[in-house]
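Forum > Structural Biology > Help requests

Title: Can anyone predict the 3D structure of Protein O-mannosyl-transferase 1?

Hi all, first post here. I have the sequence for Protein O-mannosyl-transferase 1 but no way to get a structure on my laptop. I'd be grateful if someone could post the structure tokens.
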Amino acid sequence: MLHLPLLVTAQVDLVLVLVSLLAFWSRLGQLSYPSSVVFDEVYYGQFVSLYMKRVFFMDDSGPPLGHMILALGGYLGGFDGNFAWDRIGAEYPSGVNVWSLRLLPALCGALCVPLGYLLTLELGFSHLSALGAALLLLLENSLIVQSRFMLLESVLIFFILLAFFSYLRFHNALNTSWSRYSWLLLSGISCAAAVGVKYMGVFSYLLLLGVACVHTWSLIGDRAASHLSVFVQCVSRVVCLLVVPVLLYVFWFYIHLSLLNRSGPHDQLMSSAFQASLQGGLSRITQGQPLEVSYGSQVTLRSVSSHPLPCWLHSHKANYPIRYENGRGSSHQQQVTCYPFKDVNNWWIVKHPGRQELVVDTPPQPVRHGDVIQLVHGMTSRFLNSHDVAAPMSPHAQEVSGYVDFNVSMPAQNLWRVDISNRGAESEVWKTILSDVRLVHVNTSAVLKLSGVSLPDWGFHQLEVVAERLKLGSGWTVEEHRYGTSQEQKEREAELHSPTHIDVNRKISFWAKFLELQWKMLTVKQEESEHKYSSTPLEWVTMETNIAYWLHTSTNAQIHLIGNPVSWGVANFSLLAYQLLAAVYLLRRRRGLRDLPDGVWERFVFLGCVCVGGWAVNFVPFLLMDRTLFLYHYLPALTHLYLLTPALLEHIHTHLVSSVTCQRALCVCTSAVLVSIFLSCRTFCPLTYGIPELSANQLQALKWRDSWDILYRRR
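Reply #1:
Sure, ran it for you. Structure tokens for Protein O-mannosyl-transferase 1 below:
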């Protein structure tokens, strides 16, 4: 029977609600201001536009999840991608919903504050310490700035905090509760999301895995737990923290590649097969091409090893110089190069050595792995040739030429064996786009390859092609392909300019595209130039630098990435204090002096693992990186120090300061520091929000360090 009245009892942490509301107010208030492009919005906005237009791109700085989150904000606001992200400070048109574009990073930044509160509680510290952590995060100017624009650091920090909070919630829950595994699953999902936003998330993920491994090892040694219980918990950890993140990481790319199915500016970085799978671009050229390369086929051969720009095997009516500048001689035969542009001189004809015809039979006779062929240049009818003559720029390798008979003792050596390196069987047929082929010179066993060296003026600065004796030579892929039908040279030249195709449908699998894209992201690095606001990791710790994010075109209104100097200094002091205190504890414990109960000691050590360890894994890797770095890269590490500070203060207050007078003095000092942090945050708010506008003298007064670059106009 139903008993009335129905009562619901709920406990609400009003402090948590209050700091959450303040976080949302500080991050989302006047989010559309300024209504112009701010700093790296010019970078991320391009990717948002490409998502809206479903145009393929590759960003070597990280996986696609972060870009997709930003694009989701644009999609929710009706953004169609039609905006030129060409310069910082460009005004957004009235049709662009700026609030929507910046919404999701701002939400993530706001949620970091209550997450810091909850994470401190899960670390085993009091609500007062949790409030302190939340206030430090709330009043950090740099975190506010980074959250209010279309940037990714706030998203990364949110997922890192959520991963650790969820795992600790699982770890601290009662073993009898099956609902605790939902927290473990959420932790794995958050880890995958952190890695999916930026590769720096990998280090936090590895830290969490290390913590989980220690806990799991302790669980295995617990004799009070049954074998079945230990087995279930170990399997659940493996599934949630290893299998799920890997699957989700792949899933981010699946969504990315499913959405971006149109040809775009980064196509040329990918293989021919990848390009042909996209709508437009190369697919328009290759659509309906014959699949199998046959004798008489007309083909263009793209080098697999050319990066970051592609190039195709090429020849033209120009010979190698009789003598090079260093005095070495050449064959003076026709040049063979690799040319990074589409050109009619990239076409070659696959010829059977025993026949004179340069057309495809009916039915076509396919070329297979191991077959010996000749390659005839389509526009000049020269045979691809190599011999024991040093290459022009790589004298250790053989020259490759279009053979010219000068009636000297230099016979043609124009036979090449087809070696399909990715073949599935020994009788594999040479396939358009799909086959990765090595062309092995029959006479010398040298492999046709791109040396990567540019030729001088006489070679029109095209790339050198050589033949070199290699066990693993670079491959070539047939990109454009048609069946030749004209035997006469004039007719063949006309045919090369107006190709015909046979309709053959082929696709590349998702796994092939995923692996290729992943490899390109990890290996192809775009050229980086020095930036005015770039900095070194050691400069971050003392906040020697700042970044001017935005400056009004006619007034002194501006936004800077500057941290709260007081809380920044407190965080550094806490880091040093913890390390010093841990060293003293360890030395005393080594001498048999145990100052802390085992439970308190374990909590102190675990605090260091999560907070100091979190700072280290988000800071130390940057010391080893050879790339352009900015102050905002330090924010994930700084966040962990803000969690450390109040917890360490509670530890000192509870376990090291025994005198009531000293405890009161510590409370007074802490209150004074909190007031200073608030006043410092308020002082720098005009540079955080861009309002109100300050005079030149007021701006100069905010230049607390000579190394800061604060801009102002004198009137």
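The two ends are 80 Å apart (CA to CA). Residues 454 and 463 are 4 Å apart (CA to CA).
Shout if anything looks off.
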